[in-house]
Design goal:
This protein has 157 residues and is of the alpha+beta class. It is built from three helices and eight strands; from the N terminus they run E-E-E-E-H-E-E-E-E-H-H. A hairpin with a 7-residue loop joins strand 2 and strand 3. It is globular. One of its GO terms (biological process) is ribose phosphate metabolic process.
Length: 157
């Protein structure tokens, strides 16, 4: 692995009242790549504020409350074929602070079309346990961890 740093990032497992989690399909890749909303952490930004900002930017709403978080930062490395290409070529992967949030709005508030260059082109509510199977392989260890850590929130309200 080159001597590149990890990019600091926050991630959101957004649960609806039925205990299902929002997943979105990436618009910038040809394959069927699904993931949870996530994004970069600005210098000095509080991760708890950043996760709500990322929701607003990526899915059009931050109508949610934080209900849990993973205690430590989780890292993933990019596969060799993406090094120097993904993440503007400046990072080896990401170090992520993950949060569980309860969605307080209704589905009509979820808007992927507000950004002129949206990151996602589709979304759906999914079972938490299916996440590791629908994400790209290099992110699976983190998504397995999220499925374990956040299982208690997948029971519904």
């Amino acid at each position: 692995m080159p001597d590149l740093p990890y990019r600091r990032n926050v991630g959101a497992a957004l649960f609806n009242a039925d205990g299902r989690v929002l997943v979105a399909r990436r618009a910038d890749v040809a394959r069927d790549a699904w993931q949870l909303p996530q994004g970069g952490l600005d210098e000095g930004e509080d991760p708890r504020i950043a996760v709500l900002r990322e929701l607003r930017e990526e899915i059009g709403t931050d109508h949610a409350e934080i209900i849990g978080e993973v205690g430590e930062w989780l890292n993933y490395d990019l596969p060799p074929e993406l090094l120097g290409k993904a993440l503007r070529g400046r990072y080896r992967g990401q170090t992520q602070k993950w949060f569980a949030l309860r969605f307080l709005g209704d589905d009509s508030e979820i808007r992927l079309d507000l950004d002129p260059h949206p990151e996602f082109n589709a979304w759906r509510w999914a079972e938490l346990a299916e996440l590791p199977e629908i994400v790209v392989a290099f992110r699976r260890p983190i998504y397995r961890r999220l499925a374990e850590e956040f299982a208690r929130f997948a029971q519904g309200a």
